[in-house]
């Protein structure tokens, strides 16, 4: 598989001696949905800012799509990555939905005559076509995040980073964004890197990187990483619900696999029940 | 703050709404200047009728026009009062102890009153019929000749449009913090001077902190979407000058020229 | 102390083009000492409702009784100041209300506004800071040097220092990680056990199920349901019509029951559920 993001021995300090990112390395495969999981203050948001060059690394190597991230290549790297930040209000730049999507296009020097077609296309992709002339104050948090995604998609990136993009949303908004992102990952083969502390979201991803005090503690497929209960708990993270149930049942002597995915667990339990 | 009309855009579709923002800004400037030419009551009559026509064309309601004047009433009364007392020219009309009112004072005061009303209504027509963003775009275009002497027109326009975008957000935030502090026993309208200062501090500091946080977030969001103020950018909104704009501009010029002529003749 | 709403209406910016009818005929009685969740969509009137309890907003019509204080449309605001102390309101993201140089000063700001002597307020400050899980060494630190979660604790301590009988919290765990959220809710449960009435606005039904006794459901400015936690989550169709999710455990039980299991859907505890499933296999 092609590696789209390669991070090698990355070091970053906000203050001298305080290693926010402490010599970490990881690789992300093209087209996958990866989550970086860690509690607040583990350094996970700093990684996002390093990857798009909003912060400058102390040492180490970041490669995006084979291109080295340095001052000269900054624009080349940024044009491959779109990022959705946590606060929906503070990343809405335009006066209306239309203007906000146009902002990125303006920066890319797209011909103004072509902008309306592009804006309509991506607004409809995130289901915001009826809101094109709405001002941000009239939109819900989930809608604003969808606009942010449309603005990013219009710039056709190959990677989307979600920096706790759903943590300020209500459950409805959260679900909308999660569904949208999964769909983009599948249909358009966009690589997703989601930075989160939501264990259930991590359980649905392809690859999990577990972060604590600026170090990668563990990484791998979710059903490897998320099955280590003690490790998760020691990092003040939750354990997937399906895992708690299936582990509990195993302790009672019931022959069942350990799951982190609820749907699969329900299926197996129902089969067992019908065989009884 | 919710009832405030001055500076608020009214989303509607009217002849005035559709006019080019450059024309509207330019016309406002011309009209504001002509307001200060002393063309007597005939001149103000002409301007008044013209403004009424504009209000009708922009589909604003009378109540909205009245509302735009309301917040200024206190200032107007204040100004008029001093004018009445301090201008001592012409024939004495009334004398009550130290209070002396002359006929010239009465006329001057009426002028000021009319001027203020005209200025407020004209400005309101501009802001009510032009989207903030179009307004900035218009300003940017009108300022573009100054680019040659190094004036950062684009940056200024971007700053204005971001400021306009965040005004409602910050107003909301202000109300939220006021309520949060009121929940901690702060009374913004009462108390001694010391208490008042404290309550303002309890509002201002959180507001600043949050505004700076927003500014940082916004800068990150803009940069990550490849924004570079020095680089070349295209603009989504294009201003197109139409025949109706030219005709409107001729009308405005005619009215202004009329006022100026009147003031010279009189 | 019981909280009673009688036919409460609230209209924002009445008689203007921007007028908005936020509360429509709200009748409500919240029991003293209960821990009640207030749920419903964004814009359903939850924030408006809670701001009536400490009289930040006055009803357009109707009346509200908080113990011996009656709030109506014609109340003079000054007469309602004691209510701000009686009912402590913690807004969403309360860390944004911190402004003093030290944590101590910030915590005693509220009590001092209600006329409590500085020396006495300082004793209270030490007590509440400990209650929210920070030790005395923090008193002289600047609140702006803390992490997000710690700032929030200090802000909540500032409200607790006023010793309110009723504590109202608007999404107190928004943006916290699971561990931080759990600690926060355990704190509220502890305060509740000490006899205080607690009202929590929440979107997280798992929290509601685990920590609250009663649930108020709001929709379109009306209080549509006010029931015990056990009862409310039985109304699956009603909740889904408002697109309110069930708690994870409840929806899991219902899925199993669809396929032949017979499990009591009011089970709240994972261990108990595991036993129940095991028994039926």
Question: What does this entry look like structurally?
Answer:
The complex is a heterotrimer of chains A (276), B (266) and C (281). By secondary structure, chain A is of the alpha/beta class. Chain A has two domains: 3-226, P-loop containing nucleotide triphosphate hydrolases (Rossmann fold, 3-Layer(aba) Sandwich), CATH 3.40.50; 240-276, no CATH class. Chain A has eleven helices and ten strands. Chain A has a six-stranded mixed β-sheet with strand order 6-7-8-3-9-10, sandwiched between helices. In chain A, a hairpin with a 2-residue loop joins strand 1 and strand 2 (18-29). By secondary structure, chain B is mainly alpha-helical. Chain B has two domains: 1-130 and 241-266, no CATH class; 132-235, no CATH class. Chain B has ten helices and two strands. Chain B has helices at 15-18, 21-35, 40-57, 62-69, 73-86, 103-129, 132-143, 153-182, 193-224, 243-265; strands at residues 92-96, 99-102. Chain B has a two-stranded antiparallel sheet with strand order 1-2. In chain B, helix 2 (21-35) crosses helix 7. The model of chain B has no long low-confidence stretch (mean pLDDT 87). In chain C, helix 3 (103-113) packs across helix 4 (118-131), helix 3 (103-113) runs parallel beside helix 5 (148-160) and helix 4 (118-131) packs across helix 5 (148-160). Helices cover 38% and strands 22% of the residues of chain C. Chain C has a six-stranded mixed β-sheet, with helices on both faces. A four-stranded antiparallel β-sheet of chain C has the order 2-1-4-5, covered by helices on one side. The relative contact order of chain C is 0.14. Chain C has helices at residues 46-53, 81-86, 103-113, 118-131, 148-160, 178-193, 205-211, 229-232, 236-241, 248-258, 270-279, and strands spanning 3-12, 20-30, 35-40, 61-66, 69-71, 87-90, 166-170, 197-201, 214-219, 222-228. Chain C is built from eleven helices and ten strands. The mean pLDDT of chain C is 93. In chain C, strand 7, helix 6 (178-193) and strand 8 form a beta-alpha-beta unit. The chains are: A alpha/beta (276), B mainly alpha (266), C alpha/beta (281). Chains in contact: A-B, A-C, B-C. The interface between A and B is medium-sized, with 39 and 31 residues.
């Amino acid at each position: 598989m092609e590696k789209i993001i390669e991070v090698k021995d990355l070091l970053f300090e906000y203050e001298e001696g305080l290693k926010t990112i402490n010599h970490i390395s990881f690789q992300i495969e093209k087209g996958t949905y990866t989550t970086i999981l860690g509690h607040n203050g583990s350094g996970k948001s700093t990684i996002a800012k390093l990857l798009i060059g909003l912060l400058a690394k102390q040492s180490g190597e970041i490669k995006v799509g084979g291109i080295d991230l340095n001052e000269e290549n900054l624009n080349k790297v940024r044009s491959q990555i779109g990022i959705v930040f946590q606060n929906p209000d503070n990343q809405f730049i335009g006066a209306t939905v239309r203007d906000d999507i146009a902002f990125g296009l303006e920066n890319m020097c797209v011909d103004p005559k072509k902008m309306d077609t592009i804006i309509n296309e991506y607004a409809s992709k995130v289901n915001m076509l009826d809101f094109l002339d709405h001002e941000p104050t009239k939109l819900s948090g989930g809608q604003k995040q969808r606009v942010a995604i449309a603005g990013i998609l219009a710039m056709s990136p190959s990677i989307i980073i979600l920096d706790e993009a759903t943590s300020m949303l209500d459950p409805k908004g959260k679900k909308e964004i999660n569904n949208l992102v999964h769909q983009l990952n599948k249909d358009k083969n966009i690589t997703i890197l989601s930075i989160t502390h939501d264990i259930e979201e991590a359980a649905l991803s392809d690859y999990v990187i577990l972060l604590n005090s600026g170090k990668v503690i563990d990484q791998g497929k979710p059903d490897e990483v998320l099955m280590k209960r003690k490790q998760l708990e020691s990092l003040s993270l939750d354990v997937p619900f399906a895992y708690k149930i299936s582990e509990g049942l195993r302790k009672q002597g019931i022959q069942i696999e350990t799951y982190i995915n609820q749907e699969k667990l329900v299926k197996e339990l129902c089969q067992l029940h019908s065989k009884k | 703050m919710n009832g405030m009309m001055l500076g608020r855009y009214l989303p509607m579709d009217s002849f005035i709404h559709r006019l080019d923002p450059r024309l509207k800004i330019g016309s406002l400037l011309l009209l504001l200047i002509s307001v200060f030419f002393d063309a007597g009551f005939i001149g103000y009559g002409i301007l008044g009728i013209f403004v009424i026509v504009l209000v009708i064309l922009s589909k604003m309601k009378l109540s909205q026009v009245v509302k735009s004047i309301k917040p200024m009433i206190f200032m107007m009364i204040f100004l008029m009062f001093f004018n009445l007392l301090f201008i001592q020219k012409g024939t004495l009309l009334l004398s009550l102890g130290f209070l002396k009112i002359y006929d010239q004072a009465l006329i001057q005061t009426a002028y000021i009153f009319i001027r203020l009303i005209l200025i407020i209504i004209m400005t309101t027509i501009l802001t009510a019929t032009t989207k903030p963003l179009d307004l900035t775009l218009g300003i940017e275009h009108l300022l573009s000749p100054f680019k040659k002497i190094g004036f950062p027109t684009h940056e200024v326009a971007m700053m204005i449009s971001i400021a306009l975008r965040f005004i409602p957000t910050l107003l909301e935030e202000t109300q939220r913090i006021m309520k949060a502090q009121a929940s901690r026993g702060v009374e913004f309208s009462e108390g001694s001077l010391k208490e008042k200062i404290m309550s303002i501090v309890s509002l201002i500091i959180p507001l600043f902190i949050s505004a700076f946080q927003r500014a940082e977030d916004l800068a990150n969001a803009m940069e990550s979407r490849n924004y570079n103020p020095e680089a070349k950018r295209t603009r989504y909104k294009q201003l197109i000058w139409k025949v109706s704009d030219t005709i409107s501009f001729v009308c405005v010029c005619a009215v202004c020229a009329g006022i100026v002529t009147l003031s010279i003749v009189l | 102390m019981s909280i009673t709403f009688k036919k409460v209406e609230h209209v924002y910016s009445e008689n203007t083009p921007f007028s908005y009818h936020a509360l429509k005929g709200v009748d409500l009685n919240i029991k003293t000492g209960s821990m009640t969740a207030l749920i419903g969509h964004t814009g359903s009137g939850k924030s408006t409702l809670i701001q009536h309890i400490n009289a930040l907003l006055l009803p357009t019509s109707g009346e509200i009784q908080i113990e011996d204080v009656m709030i109506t449309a014609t109340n003079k605001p000054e007469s309602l100041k004691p209510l701000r102390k009686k009912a402590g309101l913690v807004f969403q993201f309360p860390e944004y209300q911190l402004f003093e140089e030290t944590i101590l000063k910030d915590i005693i700001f509220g009590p001092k506004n209600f006329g409590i002597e500085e020396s006495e307020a300082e004793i209270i400050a030490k007590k509440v800071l400990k209650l929210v899980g920070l030790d005395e060494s923090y008193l002289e630190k600047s609140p702006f040097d803390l992490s997000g979660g710690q700032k929030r604790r200090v802000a909540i301590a500032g409200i607790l220092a006023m010793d309110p009988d009723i504590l109202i919290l608007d999404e107190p765990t928004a943006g916290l990680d699971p561990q931080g959220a759990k600690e926060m809710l355990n704190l509220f449960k502890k305060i509740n056990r000490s006899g205080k009435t607690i009202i929590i606005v929440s979107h997280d039904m798992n929290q509601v199920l685990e920590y609250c006794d009663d649930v108020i459901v709001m929709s379109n400015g009306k209080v549509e349901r006010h029931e015990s936690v056990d009862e409310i989550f039985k109304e699956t169709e009603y909740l889904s019509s408002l697109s309110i999710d069930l708690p994870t455990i409840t929806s899991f039980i219902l899925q199993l029951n669809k396929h032949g299991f017979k499990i009591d859907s009011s089970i709240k505890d994972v261990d108990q559920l595991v036993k129940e499933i095991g028994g039926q296999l």
